[in-house]
């Protein structure tokens, strides 16, 4: 009977073990004050997180500088949750997150899916090297296109402001007296 109890306790804690480990290793020795965590099942995962963190050595635990942690469910996944989750874990109803959708980490999977067939036949080392190369390429492209995207948005903003000035319209962001 004790063995069953231990197994049940282990199963309860091991369900989220990998996610907990990634969180601990990612946030180890950080100097954050506030943290927003976006996870598909944050509404369930955050429960008893403090208890699960006790299995990690204290020196490797979460940073003590973090004063506030907010758990949110990405916008694409939120409609599949119950109404209580929609209200408590919504990006739309959370101050300080801007117009984030929380899905950014998953966008890279569409790019990596074509590599699945070729890596399926590889050994573990070759598979890891190939996936590292693909993710490195994806990150490089994001960095390169970030400049182009930012430059395009700046040009669009300047163009709209020049058109507004030319049309002698008032800028709604500056109050009633601004032109």
Biggest sheet strand line-up = 1-2
Low-confidence stretches: 1-11
Radius of gyration: 23 Å
**How many separate domains?**
2
Mean pLDDT: 79
Strand content: 5-15%
Helix content: 40-55%
Describe this structure in words.
It contains eight helices and two strands, in the order ααβααβαααα. A two-stranded parallel sheet has the order 1-2. With 179 residues, the protein is mainly alpha-helical. The chain is extended, with a radius of gyration of 23 Å. The N terminus is likely disordered. It has two domains: 102 residues, no CATH class; 75 residues.
Task: Provide a compact summary of the structure.
This protein is mostly helical and 179 residues long. It contains eight helices and two strands; from the N terminus they run ααβααβαααα.
Q: How are the SSEs placed, and which strands pair?
A:
Layout: H1 2-14, H2 17-27, E1 34-38, H3 42-45, H4 49-53, E2 68-72, H5 83-88, H6 104-112, H7 115-120, H8 124-166
Parallel strand pairs: 1-2
């Amino acid at each position: 009977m004790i063995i069953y109890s231990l197994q049940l306790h282990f199963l309860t804690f091991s369900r989220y073990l990998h996610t907990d480990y990634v969180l601990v290793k990612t946030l180890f020795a950080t100097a954050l004050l506030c943290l927003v965590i976006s996870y598909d099942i944050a509404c369930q995962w955050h429960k008893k997180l403090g208890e699960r963190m006790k299995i990690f050595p204290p020196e490797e635990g979460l940073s003590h500088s973090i004063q506030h942690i907010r758990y949110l469910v990405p916008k694409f996944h939120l409609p599949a949750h119950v109404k209580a989750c929609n209200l408590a874990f919504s990006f739309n109803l959370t101050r300080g997150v801007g117009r984030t959708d929380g899905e950014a980490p998953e966008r890279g999977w569409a790019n990596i899916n074509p590599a699945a067939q070729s890596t399926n036949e590889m050994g573990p080392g070759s598979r890891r090297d190939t996936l590292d190369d693909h993710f490195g390429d994806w990150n490089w492209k994001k960095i390169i296109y970030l400049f182009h995207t930012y430059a395009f948005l700046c040009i669009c903003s300047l163009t709209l402001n020049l058109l507004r000035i030319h049309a002698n319209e008032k800028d709604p962001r500056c109050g009633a007296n601004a032109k």
